[in-house]
Amino acid sequence: MTRGIRRCVLLGCAGAALALSGCTEEHRPAEPVPVARASASAEPTHKAWEDPEKALSDAKVWASSGRRTGSWEARLPKARGGTVWVATQCQGTGTLTVDASRYGTLTEHCSEHPDGSLNAFEMTNTAAGRVRVTPGPGVTWAVAVGWSASRVQPEN
């Protein structure tokens, strides 16, 4: 009995497929639609390492470390008002602390995948200073510090 039902279902499906395929002279094939395919492994994709200096596209770059490990320090010039931008990128388990002297300090929590941030510090007249970067053991990082004359608009 189940064999007869199975044949009816199969014949019904085949008939429906033929009827829905529109096999007539007027039928025009549709444009192919791109389909996103999942990879065999279900691992998520992660962004590749990016130089944080690229995030400072509208700012004058004051200091850029390049990709590195270990501590780093650089001199920052005196500025009159505007916004100081600190862009980071880090990878590895641990933290990355960036002390931009009078402008501000931030701590990033790094992971096994590259990740970064862009931070803004509004300022008035400020004397020259330094940027000091202190990473945790096993953290690879890069930092860029820049300045723009415009001030950051406050969020409402």
Considering the chains and any ligands shown, give keywords for the structure:
4-stranded antiparallel sheet; disordered N terminus; mainly beta; single chain; 1 helix; 156 residues
Give a written overview of the molecule.
The chain is mainly beta and 156 residues long. It has one helix and eight strands, in the order αββββββββ. It has one helix spanning 2-21, and strands at residues 60-64, 72-76, 79-91, 94-99, 105-110, 115-126, 129-135, 140-148. Strands 1-8-3-6 form a four-stranded antiparallel sheet, with no helix packed on it. The protein has a four-stranded antiparallel sheet with strand order 2-7-4-5, with no helix packed on it. Strand 4 (94-99) and strand 5 (105-110) form a beta hairpin. The chain is globular, with a radius of gyration of 28 Å. It starts with a helix and ends in an 8-residue tail after the last strand.
Series of H and E elements: HEEEEEEEE
Overall pLDDT: 75
Largest sheet: 4 strands, antiparallel
Q: Write down the oligomeric state.
A: single chain
Helix and strand content put the structural class at: mainly beta
Count of separate DSSP helical elements? 1
The parts where pLDDT drops under 50 for at least 5 residues are 1-42
What strand order characterises the main sheet? 1-8-3-6
- Helix fraction bin: 10-25%
Shape: globular
- What fraction of the residues are assigned to beta strands by DSSP? 35-45%
The Rg value, from CA coordinates, equals 28 Å
Tally of extended strands?
8
State the end-to-end CA separation. 71 Å
